[in-house]
Structure formats: C-alpha cells, structure tokens
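REVIEWER CHECKLIST
Item 1: Sequence provided? yes
Item 2: Single chain? yes
Item 3: Sequence as submitted:
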Amino acid sequence: MRNSDWVALSDAQRGQLVSIWLLAADKKGKIPNDPLIIKKLCYMDTVPDLNLFIEHGFIEVDANVTPERRQDDANVTHQSREEESREEEKKLCTSHATHSDLPRLTIPQVINIYHEKLPTLPRVQKVTKTREGLIRQRIREDMQTAEQWENYFDHVANSDFLMGKTQPTNGRPPFRADLEWLCRPSNLAKIAEDKYHVQQTKR
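Item 4: Structure as written out by the authors:
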C-alpha cells in the first residue's frame, strides 16, 4: 500500500489493476493482451490503460503468448469485440474533439513551468518515479495545457503559506511547497478550494 507507483494511480486505476490481478490469478498468471477483452472479462466501465500499468511494472508483456493461447481465456467473439470497439469510439467522440488538437505536455515541460513561475520554491533536482507518476496523472486528469499549469502555479504564488512567507508559532522553519507536494491530488483539491489562501477583507 506504500508503493509510490501504486499511490500515484487514481482510485479507478487501482480498482482496474486489482481486477486484472484477480483475472491473472484465475488464469495461471496470464491475461489477454487486449484491453477491450479485459474490460469485458472484468466487467469494467472503461477500457484499462495497459501501457500505464506496464510502465509502472505492475504487469509484464509476455512475447510467448500467442493469439491462439489467448482465445480460450478471452471467450469473446470477433463480432463482440467489434461492437465493443464501436461503443468505445462513440464514448470517446466528445473527448477526442476537445483534446485531440491539444499538444501533449511532457514532464520536463511541466518542471520548467514550475521553475519559471515559482523560482523561490524548491527546485526539482531529480525526477523520481513518484514525481513522474504524479505529474503524469495531473496531466492526464487535470491540466492538459501549459496555460493551465501556469494558472495553477500563479494561484499557488498568491498563497503566503505555500510560498513559505508565514512564520510558524512553534519556532520551526516555515513550510514551503514543492512540485511533488503540489501534484498530489488531495493537495491540488485544497489549493483549488483556497484552503491555503488568506481571504482579504475590505476595510
């Protein structure tokens, strides 16, 4: 439960991964190399991102698994796979129209924006797996464009607490947010809700 790659996944992705592991346990460690078939076998609402799970090392590609060996496990006809694919295309139609024309941000680009917008906060010296996973998750789920990241960091800059400008009463050094902390989903939600921003009152 403390694995950094596991923590970086969303709740839905962790649920999908557990279902995939249960499927593998029932099939001697093997799963079909087809996300549409896995979606059907595991009764998922959406198609799992197998590449993401492979990148994190939760599942591995077995070059010895052939389509013939997977046919019995899948137990899904060619026609049903085509119908499943058509359904997914309909569901993705709207998101494709809104996001297909957006350039895909890279992790180094996000780090550069962080350094430019928040130069007084701790610099990123090393891109760990945890940080990489958190940034990738934020790009995928919350901020797909450079402008969105810039606006987010501008909002962070308006918080004295996050910028380390408030002095704790216990004598400890002031808290300063870093990129990893800012990319955690719970902290992102609190920042969006102005939990760390002092509301100025009019005189």
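Item 5: Key structural point noted by reviewer: Confidence is low (pLDDT under 50) at residues 63-74, 92-101.
Item 6: Recommendation: ____
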